[in-house]
Amino acid sequence: MKMLGIYEKALPKDISWFERLTLAKELGFDFVEMSVDETDERIARLDWTKAERKAIRDAIFELDMPILSMCLSAHRRYSLGSADPDKQEIALALMTKAVNLASDLGIRSIQLAGYDVYYEPKTTMSRNAFIENLQKCVTIAANKSVVLSIEIMDDPFINSISKFLEIKAQIPSPYLQVYPDLGNLSAWPENLVGYELEKGIAAISQVHLKDTLAVTSEFEGKFKNVAFGAGCVDFVGCLKTLKRLNYSGSFVMEMWSETSETPVAEIEKAKGIVLPFLKEAGYA
To answer: Is the dihedral of CA 43, 107, 275, 269 positive or negative?
Structure first.
């Protein structure tokens, strides 16, 4: 069975990390993907003390349940491409802290959202600033042997692997890779999904499993909280393509059920849909 992880935001929010890792293991997952989003609460994780970090490491070892990746979406708030130099500096400081935390906890990959800016107008300058600062981020990460993986997004800036590769060509580092979200990749009508996976296979570090509703001329698409099997993603086709291409990395089920009244039931239902897809593609 291929390594299958669960996104932290699928699991109940107000529990300890020991409880979270325990629950993930009980649900049959192999690892957890941590979230450091744009909220003050989760950004504060980057300043955990040595004792706090040790407690999580101890839980990881005791339970044999690693945290292998981090979703660093704090850059939505403090963008690498921001017109505000102070925000750029904060963005770089967040990256340094995130890399240090990843190194301490055994996290292999930090997933970056593929936005130049999120709350500001997109310009040629914002793109240039993003690429310049991404180069600095890659240097920071490489120094600690942590891989940065840019997610294919719900945003036109990097909504295809082809667009990622245009940036990768300017930063040709093994510490900069791509993290396809099959839902986001499939939602954009201009993407030939199989071709995109073929074109980028050498740079794929991890894959998000998520369903979406496609973008049309009349509809902006829906990129979150679409039930598996109810959207536009051809999971079996995507997974068989990855299998043919000898993709041997891990998968992460991405859900946002942390505030649901029945998160465990929702995860179990989703997993019951996803596992047959993986099995049919030869991953289970």
So the answer is: negative
Note the pTM of the prediction, 2 decimals.
Answer: 0.96
Contacts of 116 (CB under 8 A, 6+ apart): 79, 80, 81, 122, 126, 127, 129, 130, 157
| Residue of 274, 264, 269 whose CA lies nearest to 19 | 264
List, for residues 65-97, the tens digit of each pLDDT value.
999 999 999 999 999 999 999 999 999 999 999
Compute the C-alpha angle 131/136/141, nearest 5°: 120
Strands (E), 236-280: 250-253
Answer positive or negative: Cα dihedral of 75, 214, 34, 260.
positive
For the stretch 4-26, what's the b/e string if a residue is b when 16 or more beta carbons lie within 10 angstroms of its beta carbon? bbbbbbbbeeeeebbebbbbbee
Nearest CA-CA partner of 251 in 270, 266, 269:
270
Q: Which two tokens stand for residue 25?
A: 């293991």
- Residue 155 CB neighbour total at 10 angstroms: 17
